[in-house]
Amino acid sequence: MMAVSRTEPNILITGTPGTGKTTLGKELALQSGLKFVNIGDYAKENEAFEGYDDAYECPILDEDAVMDGLEDIISHGGVIIDYHGCDFFPERWFDVVFVLRTNNTVLYDRLVQRGYSGKKLEDNLQCEIFQTILEEAKESYATQIVHELPSNTWDERHSNIQMILGWIDQWKKDHA
Ligand code: DAT
Asked: ipTM score here?
């Protein structure tokens, strides 16, 4: 099956929980006019969970249901996806992958503020220290489309947004 040619790019924003994916993605959607889809919210709305992970204290995503449900909107392009994982999406979905990175002390404060503690807090901090999501992204997508972005301060968020808006414009010109 031939992919429909898209006039707007699909963007994956990934990274450890708390690195700022939703904050960045929503603002980016507002400023670019692209659609924003947070995978956790999407799964909740569409009951696309298949149980609860007691060790990680989070619902288990029904990945097949999520992918089937999103295939149509993704094929039209112009979607920003926000998720703390990236290895199960079809590679062809995304034109670019941004991996948000946050310093450990900053991330610690954000996660504590979110109510994380104990194993859940430790696991998420380790995920960032060992750059698990960055490695996952590099293994799942062509390395030239994977970009690491610092996400510690509001200034960094601002420059990330400006950079990505510029990237979107350029992509549209290249694919017009
Ligand atoms: P995620 O979607 O990756 O779990 P979030 O967008 O919910 O993260 O952000 C987590 C918290 O951090 C939230 O209180 C907003 C804050 N935050 C996000 N990006 C930030 C940035 N660049 N500078 C300062 N605070 C930020």
From this structure: 0.99
CATH 3.40.50.300 for domain 10-34+80-175 = yes
Round to whole Å and give the CA distance between 168 and 158.
15
Question: Which tokens sit at 8?
Answer: 């707007």
CA of 173 to the centre of ligand 1 (A): 31
pLDDT of residue 145: 98
Provide mean pLDDT across the span 4-14. 91
- Rounded to the nearest integer, the mean pLDDT of the chain is 95
Binding site membership of 153 for ligand 1 (Cβ less than 6 Å)? yes
Distance CA 144, CA 157 (A): 22
* Pairwise CA distance, residues 59 & 49, whole Å: 6
Determine whether the shortest distance from the Cβ of 25 to ligand 1 is under 6 A.
no
